[in-house]
Structure formats: structure tokens, C-alpha cells
Design a protein that fits this description.
Structural class: alpha+beta
Number of strands: 5
Number of domains: 1
Number of helices: 2
Bound molecules: zinc ion
Largest sheet: 3 strands, antiparallel
Length: about 70
């Protein structure tokens, strides 16, 4: 998920699978979106009763499911 820090001057990117936090001084949601696309994060739309929200999954959690590149 993407969350606004209280005070509203910064955004954080959380992995909804492992809880990893990316805190890179994002100033806008747009900056977070650009970063996560470039870094290989994936978004999933999740429906919980009448709520709809985006879940974000970090590259580590994806490679755990499907390893296509192993570092030596
Ligand atoms: Zn993760």
C-alpha cells in the first residue's frame, strides 16, 4: 500500500506481503508510482466487502513465487 505520513509531507511504500517499507522521501503519490514500476513492484486490486484497495508487492515477494533470476 501507499501511505501518507502524518503531517502529509511524505509518502511511504509498504509491501502487503512481507511488510517491507520503502522510505525514499517521496513527495507525491506519483513519485511512488514511478519508483515502484521502475523497481519491479506489482499492484493488485483487492476487494474486501465494500472496500476496494490496492495492494503492493515488492520484487522479493514476487521472486519467492517465481525465481527467474538468481544472483551468484
Ligand atoms: Zn515483500
Amino acid at each position: 500500500m501507499i501511505e501518507q505520513v502524518s503531517g502529509g509531507d511524505r509518502y511511504l511504500l509498504f509491501c502487503d506481503s512481507c511488510g517491507e517499507i520503502e522510505d525514499r522521501g517521496f513527495k507525491t503519490v506519483q513519485e511512488v508510482v514511478i519508483y515502484k514500476k521502475a523497481a519491479g513492484w506489482k499492484s493488485k486490486l483487492r476487494y474486501c466487502s465494500d472496500l476496494v484497495r490496492w495492494e503492493e508487492h515488492c520484487p522479493d515477494c514476487q521472486s519467492r513465487r517465481r525465481r527467474y533470476r538468481e544472483e551468484p
